[in-house]
Design brief:
mainly alpha; Arc Repressor Mutant, subunit A; 2 domains; 195 residues
Length: 195
């Protein structure tokens, strides 16, 4: 079994005409790109589209990749830009039909927590994250979920480290506020009023 090639070596091999090198990069980074897109966009279909668009964009731009940042940092930037493009496009499209909330009334809270409780909490966090303003959401996703450091997050977004730290803090405060709003006394989720 041969040793695994670095991202930088795969980029160079692609530039030299080895198309399989790009496939290896896609295979290596596809899950992380999808997860970033999903957390930015909140819908599986949009995340799949953004993942495909991000890799197509990377394919077109890879010959101009200068290597000043790590490939993963550059790929995160391409993905974030793709997500922003999709969010702008989504905001310009007319809303033909409202997303239906198929959830019925919340069931009674069981006496002892189980796996379903953890899953419901994760869903609540994901829903609340989508309500956090984009400039804060992207730093939360990159730093807190994708586990990038402040410096790497700053490199992905091309903003100062201090701005990243400020946005992480403000994003966490916004997310906590949204989660508090969703929880009623007794642990049931708050549903929007239909009046």
């Amino acid at each position: 079994m041969g040793e695994e090639r670095s991202d930088e070596e795969l980029v160079e091999r692609f530039r030299a005409g080895d198309r399989a090198a790009f496939s290896a990069l896609v295979h290596r980074h596809e899950r992380r790109v999808y997860n970033l897109a999903y957390r930015m966009l909140g819908r599986e279909e949009d995340a799949r589209d953004a993942t495909q668009d991000a890799f197509l964009s990377a394919l077109r731009k890879l010959s101009s990749f200068r290597g000043e940042a790590r490939f993963t940092t550059w790929m995160h930037r391409v993905t974030v830009n793709t997500c922003y493009d999709l969010l702008r496009k989504r905001s310009r499209e007319p809303l033909l039909e409202r997303d239906r909330d198929d959830e019925g009334p919340e069931p009674a809270v069981p006496a002892s927590p189980d796996h379903a409780d953890a899953t419901a909490a994760t869903v609540d966090v994901q829903r609340a994250l989508l309500l956090v303003p984009e400039e804060f959401r992207v730093v939360l996703v990159l730093h807190d979920i994708q586990d990038l450091g402040y410096e790497e997050t700053a490199g992905v977004l091309d903003i100062p480290v201090g701005t990243v730290k400020s946005r992480v803090h403000r994003g966490r405060v916004a997310l906590a506020g949204l989660l508090r709003e969703r929880i009623r006394p007794g642990g049931a989720s708050k549903e929007p009023s239909t009046e």
